[in-house]
């Protein structure tokens, strides 16, 4: 068993750890511990395929009941069968073998179960983590396909902590741009309308403070959206400063205006020396 990555959550937030595994397209098991709670998250090629936590076992039947897929009577019968086998059979297996539920019902509930577990993890501020390369769940588990970016976005939507914003965006004069997909890894990202609108203001030129001024969602809400986008790896800090970028853009615009004025003057005077404005502009920009 090869230990590939380990540390404290106080040093690396869980969104950062998830992003590190996703961007490297890692496959294996991430173990996370806080006090007596231990959670195991399984990855394949940077995507989450399974997760297990200590408070998860009773949720399956309850979730199926809440969805109207399982009656109290059928659930009780399945639990009694499981007890007679000394818990050697999984509840989901028993429910399907008795035709109390369909496989699609079980798959959907398992995915919801794992997602809820992941969302709860994002509020952890203390604990330790270890990543084991190429360690996977048993063949008995029902595997899922969950995007790391979507987990981070949805998990952070549920948090309302100003400290998270301060830690994620400590410098309001910093400039951000859209990040490229790492290691040619396709990203399945589901953004809501406000997140799209805030992201549209991130252009590599504007500072965080400028984006807040332009946004229609208010300063606090805009900062929260920017923090979510950063932790999900959708935007990244760039070294380019807004004043430098504005200066360069102004110079290029002024140069183009001068060239265009020269072109019109020559055309009115009947000169045949007519320069190719596009070509001259490109050469001057180079």
Helical content stands at: 40-55%
Strand order of the largest sheet: 1-5-2-3-4
> What portion of residues belong to β-strands?
5-15%
- Report the sheet with the most strands, covering strand number, pairing sense and barrel closure: 5 strands, antiparallel
Protein topology:
Blueprint: E1 3-8, H1 14-23, E2 28-34, E3 37-44, E4 47-52, H2 59-66, H3 72-84, H4 91-97, H5 103-121, E5 128-133, H6 148-157, H7 162-168, E6 175-178, H8 193-200, H9 208-214, H10 219-231, E7 235-238, H11 242-268, H12 277-285
Antiparallel strand pairs: 1-5, 2-3, 2-5, 3-4, 6-7
Helix pairs in contact: 2-5, 5-6, 6-10, 7-10, 8-10, 9-10, 11-12
Task: Describe the structure concisely.
This protein has 286 residues and is an alpha+beta fold.
């Amino acid at each position: 068993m090869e230990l590939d990555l380990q540390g404290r959550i106080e040093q690396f937030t869980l969104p950062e750890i998830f992003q590190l595994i996703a961007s490297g397209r890692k496959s294996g098991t991430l173990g996370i511990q806080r006090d007596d709670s231990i959670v195991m998250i399984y990855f394949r090629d940077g995507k989450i395929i399974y997760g297990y936590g200590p408070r998860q076992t009773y949720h399956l039947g309850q979730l199926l009941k809440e969805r109207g897929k399982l009656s109290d009577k059928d659930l009780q019968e399945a639990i009694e069968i499981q007890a007679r086998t000394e818990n050697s059979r999984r509840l989901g297996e028993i429910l399907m073998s008795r035709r109390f539920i369909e496989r699609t019902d079980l798959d959907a509930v398992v995915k919801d179960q794992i997602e809820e577990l992941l969302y709860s993890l994002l509020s952890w501020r203390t604990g330790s983590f270890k990543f084991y390369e190429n360690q996977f769940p048993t063949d008995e588990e029902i595997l899922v396909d969950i995007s790391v970016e979507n987990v981070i976005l949805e998990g952070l939507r549920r948090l309302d902590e100003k400290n998270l914003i301060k830690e994620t965006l400590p410098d309001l004069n910093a400039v951000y741009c859209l990040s490229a997909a790492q290691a040619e890894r396709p990203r399945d990202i589901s953004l809501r309308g406000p997140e799209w609108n805030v992201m549209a203001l991130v252009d590599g030129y504007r500072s965080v403070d400028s984006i807040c001024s332009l946004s229609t969602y208010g300063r606090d809400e805009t900062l929260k959206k920017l923090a979510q986008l950063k932790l999900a790896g959708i935007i990244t800090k760039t070294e380019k400063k807004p004043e430098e970028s504005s200066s360069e853009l102004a110079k290029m615009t002024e140069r183009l205006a001068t060239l265009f004025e020269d072109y019109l003057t020559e055309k009115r005077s009947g000169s045949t020396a007519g320069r190719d404005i596009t070509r001259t502009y490109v050469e001057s920009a180079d």
